[in-house]
Amino acid sequence: MTGRIGMVGLGRMGRGLSRRLVRQGWGVMGFDRSREAEALSAKEGVTTVVNLDELIALPRPRIVWLMIPAGAGVDEVVGKLSQWLEPGDGVVDGGNSFWRDSQRRADLLAEKGVLFSDCGVSNGLQGVEEGFGLMAGGTAGSRALISDLLNALAPPGGVVFCGPPGAGHFVKMVHNGVEYGMMQALVEGFAMMEKAPFSLDPMAVGQAWQQGGLVRSRFLELVLRAMAEDPGLNRFAPNVGDNGTGRWALQTAVELGVPTPVLSAALFTRFQSRGWGTHGLKLLAALRRQFGGHPSPGSGGV
Q: Which phi and psi angles does 178 have, rounded to 5°?
């Protein structure tokens, strides 16, 4: 066995990381509040435990990887781990936490001599087979502790050590902001083809783009896969969520004075898809009618 770690959070991504590690010869001891999630991971070679503190059985130096939603839940788990982890042990937050929170958690654990690393994870579920893109922040000590682990999870060249604590989640936040803009541009292009004054085959166009166009990408590959699985996209409501990283990226851009109009538009479009802008759009239509007598939102004028 190459090494052994604890995995807290066995949802889709936590389970995917665990699967990748097991295939690379690592032992994984996993904990999740969901017994169903634990059962699924157990079938894939993960040793599951019922209580978080059972991870103390890990060999030293212990490494505990967190794959749980950002926010209070991370603080809760970090607080519990800080009570029994020992100097030289390490905690990796692989979720999408806010980078300033990661700095604070690193300071808290450093008081106990526990090494902290914030590690952004990319490539979704495809990472199980291909390897995950990893963006890590931390001290020199945490980097030394987790280097072999990260190399097992990533493809060759897929790990970047970004800097001190917080830097990994900062870079992942920027990555996700770029992601928002790329996704938005692609879907707008396909929406135009749906409305084109020609009988276009968007799937054929996209396949040609993917072979030789400058817009070929993993995202275009996934667009084509989604269209192939459900050509009419009938399984989906026009309601697009966000996990918080886009909001943090925009807030940080404002703090730094960096113009990010593409990210802004993509993020606000997601908000609008959830009906947050519905009242405003109705009022805009009513206002146009007031000054111009326009009978519907589709008529001309200002």
A: -60, -40
pTM exceeds 0.85:
yes
Residue 86 designated active-site: no
Burial label, 246 (beta-carbon count in 10 A; 0-12, 13-18, 19+): buried
Active-site residue, selected from the candidate residues 112, 179, 195, 221: 179
> Which mean pLDDT values do the consecutive 10-residue runs of the chain (302 residues) have?
88 96 96 94 94 93 96 96 96 97 97 97 91 97 97 97 98 95 92 93 95 93 89 80 89 97 92 78 72 57 48
Would you say the C-alpha torsion 55, 127, 149, 163 has a positive or negative sign?
A: negative
Dihedral sign computed on CA atoms, order 47, 51, 52, 58:
negative
> Would the CA dihedral through 248, 250, 251, 253 be positive or negative?
positive
Q: How many CA atoms lie within 13 A of 103 on its CB side?
A: 8
Query: Which of 229, 207, 225 is CA-nearest to residue 216?
Result: 207
- The one catalytic residue among 38, 112, 172, 194: 172
Identify which of 231, 195, 193 has the alpha carbon closest to the alpha carbon of residue 209: 193
Q: Residue 133, SS3?
A: strand
State the Cα–Cα distance between residues 58 and 107, nearest whole angstrom: 23
Give 32's contacts (C-beta < 8 A, 6+ positions apart).
8, 9, 10, 11, 14, 38, 41, 48
Annotation marks residue 179 as catalytic: yes
Tokens of 260: 């990010």
Sign, Cα dihedral of 30, 160, 122, 157: negative
